[in-house]
Each structure stands twice: as C-alpha cells, then as structure tokens.
Write a sequence for this structure.
C-alpha cells in the first residue's frame, strides 16, 4: 500500500518546500510568538503533511488553530469565519464518526488522495493564519468549501 511507504524524496521535498513557504509567508508580517505547544505541534504537522497523512494533518491543524484562540473552540484571530467553520466541521467529522457515514474511508486512501491533500493544504494555511494573524487579511474566509 503506497500510503504506508515513505513518499519519493522529490514528493517529500516538494511538500516540505510548500509547507515552509507558507510558514515564511505568514510569519513575514510578524506576530506574537506562538506557544511552546503550538510550535511542537507544528513540527508534527509538518511531518504528517510531508508523509501524506492528510486526515492527521487536518486534525493537527485544527488543534493548533484552536490552541491559539483565547477561548476553547472560538475562532482564532486571523482566521476568517468561513475558514474556521470549514476546518471545525471537517475536524469534527473526522474525530466523531457518524455511524454509517464515515468522513474518511479506506476508499479515500486509494481514490481521493488529491481531494484530501487539497483539504490538508487548506487546513495548514488556516493553522498558519491562526499562528501569525495578519493585521488585515482581505482573503480570510473567502475560500470555497470542499
């Protein structure tokens, strides 16, 4: 099963470059230092993202974004309402399975990896927006639901 093997070096490097590019882009405006736990979770997020563990990336991205919020489950500063609702709903579907209607299946591992990669990328962007909130983010919440 390809999903259990380390991706080819070029794939890992491309994912790592994208991830680190997102971090550099979001951090460029400056922001209060993220918490120690958020930094530690970001290391895990990068590892699962580079490995292609898409559902794990979504779940970790939500945990990081939520940790940056002043109130549990409240929308963190820097994250648009639409993005927060999308990430929270997807994370909830992954963590709290609806019997008979799984949000993530073995078939997804084989047939919908591209869709789940897109979702993971969006979740990573949201996590970085929570860690490094821009003073005025004109694009927040304008992305479409997937």
């Amino acid at each position: 099963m390809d999903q259990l093997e380390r991706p080819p070096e070029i794939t890992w490097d491309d994912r790592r470059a994208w991830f680190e590019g997102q971090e550099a882009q979001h951090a460029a405006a400056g922001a209060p230092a993220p918490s120690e736990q958020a930094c530690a979770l970001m290391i895990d997020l990068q590892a699962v993202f580079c490995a292609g563990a898409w559902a794990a990336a979504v779940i970790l991205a939500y945990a990081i974004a939520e940790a940056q919020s002043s109130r549990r489950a409240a929308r963190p500063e820097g994250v648009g309402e639409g993005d927060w609702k999308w990430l929270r709903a997807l994370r909830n579907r992954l963590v709290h399975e609806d019997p008979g209607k799984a949000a993530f299946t073995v078939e997804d591992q084989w047939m919908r990896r591209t869709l789940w990669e897109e979702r993971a990328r969006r979740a990573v962007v949201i996590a970085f927006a929570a860690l490094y909130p821009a003073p005025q983010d004109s694009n927040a919440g304008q992305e479409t639901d997937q």
In short: The two ends are 26 Å apart (CA to CA). The longest helix spans residues 9-27.
